[in-house]
Design a protein that fits this description.
By secondary structure, the protein is of the alpha/beta class. The chain contains 15 helices and 11 strands. Helix 8 links the parallel strand 7 and strand 8. The longest helix has 22 residues.
Amino acid sequence: MTQLTDLGVAAIRDGIATGDFTATEIAAAFNAAVEQAQPALNAFIVTTPEKALEAAAKVDADRAAGKALGKMAGVPIGMKDLFATSGVQTTAASKILEGFTPPYESTVSQKLWDAGAGMLGKLNLDQFAMGSSNETSAFGNVVSPWRRPDDTAPLAPGGSSGGSSAAVAARIAPAATGTDTGGSIRQPAAFTGISGIKPTYGRCSRWGVVAFASSLDQAGPMARDVRDCAIMLEAMAGFDPKDSTSLNLPVPAWEAGLSADLRGKKVGIPREYRMDGMDADVVRVWEEGVAWLKDAGAEIVDISLPHTKYALPTYYIIAPAEASSNLARYDGVRYGLRDLPDGAGLQDMYAATRAAGFGAEVKRRILIGTYVLSAGFYDAYYTQAQKVRTLISHDFRNAFGEVDVILAPTTPTAAFALGENSDDPLAMYLNDVFSVPASLAGLPAMSVPAGLDRNGLPLGLQLIGKAFDEQGVLNAALAIENRAGFAARPAKWW
């Protein structure tokens, strides 16, 4: 018999609706799985088993009363600790917010609760979402449930949504929220063999989400497969008048529109993503992806995205600049940590609080951002970066005049060991080389597991679509999912 924790979003939702099991049984099973795995994986900062059971009891009562059930009815999920949750600590994995309990709920989390989901807890992440390996959290590293054969070295689950990816891959949550600024949904999904989609910028409200880079941040779902991501995205998305960047568009029925038939569609293969020295396994899986999409009926077209080589440096100017502005609100005055040395004045308190509360990577990015926004360098760096960002967007617009969706690798390699790149920020930043361009252009992009490398670790393929065309991305991802037949899962060692 299938264990309840092996079930995904669709299977849980449908099984509860038909009475195969209760929402309370599901919540209890996942609560137990979280409790068992947490000491080894450190995927959660806070666990909330009572919240999961409370939501489950309501779903069971509604079903018994014959009431209509929501899209996520009875599905217990992990909530990335970047989303404000009323009455539950929200820290962004930083000491500067330790103990902060919001009196309000983020729009995305509220939509999920309204759809019938329950909360297993708040998931660990890179501090303020700044990182690619989940090693910058003030609450300890998240450890991937995957391991190399005959090797006990702990692997990175990706970042910043590393707690989310580890929890879903380890089967201690059927799904989780993530946020993606430069690849923080897609990269960890690829590292852990799960699916994750960053929707078009503005599809999901940013209200109540701790900000990193406001023109880039976007919430999205992480789950075991494409259908589960479609279901969860429907529940998360929608216009929010509290967010000035929110898209005032109806939410499409993405689950109902799923189709792996790509006849009549054109898939672009960007030549600039073929880089010297690429990992042979990544190239192999990419070529297999091309063949799978051909088999699904798509026409393959070579395309050019000429400004791709400038995407990473552009991102690492714009994102830190916005971060330096956003993080200025953490000053020890209104909430969070306050470090007030004896005899200190206001400026001393600011300095002491930020020195104690921010981690090394956060400080590094604040310093970079403050530098590029300074009077002498604003035009030389920040203004130039914004111009290049526009050129990158034009590249995509031109490409989508020829094709419907773009196929590329999600990451340049499979997961690396914790500590392997932590002393080399540039090597860490290069993990985002394939994911950053779509973020700069605000386009929907998804990672779907496509195979294993020579060490038996997952590799993901990335689908990038036109603005507002999440359906096209989901459908192309489904075509790959159906043909890849990816069924690998981490061997349980925790």
